[in-house]
Amino acid sequence: MLEKLRQYFIFGRLGVKLYVLAVITGLLSSLAIILLRLTIDFGQMALFPSGEVESYDSLPWYWLLVLPIIGSLLIGLLFRGLDAEQRNTGILHVIERLSSYEGRLPWQNAVRQFIGTSIAIITGHSVGREGPGVHLGAASGSLLASGLELPNNSVRILVASGSAAAIAASFNTPIAGVIFAMEVIMMEYHIASFIPVILAAVTGAVVCRLTFGDDTVFVNLATQMQSLWELPYIIFLGIIIGFLATLSLKSLKLFSGTFSKHPAWLRPTYAGILMGIFGMAVPEVMGMGYGIIGSISANEIAIGSLVIILILKLVLSSACVGFGIPAGMVGPTMVVGACAGAILGYIGNLVLPEYASSMTFYAVIGMCAMMSATLKAPLAALMAMLELTGNPEIILPGMLAIVFSSLIIHDYFKLDALFVSILRYRGLDFQNDPISQALRKVSVGAAMQRNFVTLNQVINAQMAMQTLKNSPEWIIITRDRIPVVMMPASDLARAVSVKEMGENSEIDLMQIPGTRRDVHKISLHTSLFEAYQALNEHHVEALYVSRQNAPMIERIYGILTREMIEAHYQLPKSVTK
């Protein structure tokens, strides 16, 4: 039954079948996010004397000092003895696996992500749960696809679906979840991917609302722009946010390279020491920091405190992630942007109170501009702004701030998006050009030629004539049951017709005149991108597509040539050489 189901997805047109799997992925992803959130919340409530989430200020000073250090030591022990591949977590891990492994994520890394993130946030590290949530959501889709042995192009779509559901469930923002998955995870827009990703995001948001209610993670953010005269000041805000985003990326790079030769399991402890020292002085910088945004919207925080929190949050979140704490920077980045926006809003109200909007308005603009600049995700930031505030009028000023923050970091400082920068800093080859994108969308099962036969190198004339009656286009020639070359069936027909043979006359298919192509094996689950790489890597002219149906039993399903790949996407001559 399972084997029939697998073949149903491999060979048939996906359509509705993939939509059903996307809904299941959205459900699994949202359940993972809910479990992560509840684990963190109940862990903090049990730890703090006040019994409230993120109430670090209720702890005595010595606990503020030692708690992050204890957490980082536990994380170090969790990751001790593992190689770099086994330690990888978060959005960076998802993008890397999409780039190099067609989106197949190991479940062990996801488990370590869940445990490590829970420990990190409970013990006060300045990190977020959104990046880990995306990892868990993507892993949900990847593991579902792997269990059904789906082709790699379908794996990629379910990974994007799980990522979208994770963001939708984390912030209660389904549209932003869809755009985030396309801009940050897949780094492309393709109509075939939108419907399953939308279904997954809606599923994630619905399950989240059934569990936590209809409110977004940030409350009381509804606000209005007072005057069009504010637009120049909003442009100035965008420029400032661009510089802060640049500083954030450069800080992350600095901490990632600091003590890089020290044991990997020990490096998180350095983050714990920093968090303990500064958290003891300013408890507000510990944890995700979402309470800061709530205090801004309620006008319950002083401008001096905002400045200190902005500086410490930017540095400490970069230090935590750079030193190897397995959590994300999306949440802390938004908090930094909100603080910067609120500070500029405060100044604007001092200078021109009759024209300036509220601090909350500028905090929302700053929060989303920072997200856009750091992640290179302008549309996701705009949609998040719309869904978090429920106010479409905020889109106009938000677009201005996002444009100018992006101009500063990406055009003036020439920096890539956060996760791409880290990948390239680590020396990993990241390919996301249009050709690679197009080839990754198509499985070899959709492009291969199935009109072929498999013959031993030496056959008799009767078998040759019987084979040709079925009008095959290609012949795979085997030696000791192993495919070695393939040739057009027309060459065998020509050899049989030019000379008369008895039925038992032997024909050596390697000796008759013909065009033979060296072949190499490729899995039925791979994409055309992997097939194209295999042609170049093994220096062959064709591939035979196979799949193991049972132990020691392998079946050949089709053949694939360079021309067949080019039929799906016309490669430039410089690439095909």
Query: Considering DSSP H and I runs of 4 or more, what fraction of the residues is helical?
Result: 55-70%
Which class best fits the helix and strand makeup? alpha/beta
Give the overall pLDDT as a whole number: 88
Shape type: elongated
| Unreliable spans | 571-577
Number of strands: 8
What fraction of the residues are assigned to beta strands by DSSP? Answer: 5-15%
The count of helical stretches stands at 26
- CA-atom Rg in angstroms: 28 Å
Tell me the distance between the termini: 44 Å
Strand order of the largest sheet: 1-3-4-6-7-8
Oligomer: single chain
Question: Quick one: biggest sheet?
Answer: 6 strands, mixed
Could you explain the architecture of this structure?
The chain has 577 residues and is an alpha/beta fold. 63% of the residues lie in helices and 8% in strands. It is built from 26 helices and eight strands. The protein has helices spanning 2-11, 16-47, 61-79, 84-87, 90-100, 107-122, 130-147, 152-171, 174-186, 191-212, 231-257, 267-281, 290-297, 303-322, 330-351, 359-375, 378-389, 395-412, 418-425, 434-440, 444-447, 461-468, 489-498, 528-537, 562-568, 573-576; strands at residues 452-456, 458-460, 474-479, 482-488, 506-508, 517-523, 542-550, 553-561. The strands form two sheets. Strands 1-3-4-6-7-8 form a six-stranded mixed sheet. It starts with a helix and ends with a helix. The chain crosses the membrane at residues 20-40, 60-79, 191-212, 232-252, 264-282, 319-347, 359-382, 394-413. InterPro entries: CBS_dom_sf (IPR046342), Cl-channel_core (IPR014743), ClC (IPR001807), ClC-type_chloride_channel (IPR050368). Pfam families: Voltage_CLC. This is Chloride channel protein. It is a multi-pass membrane protein.
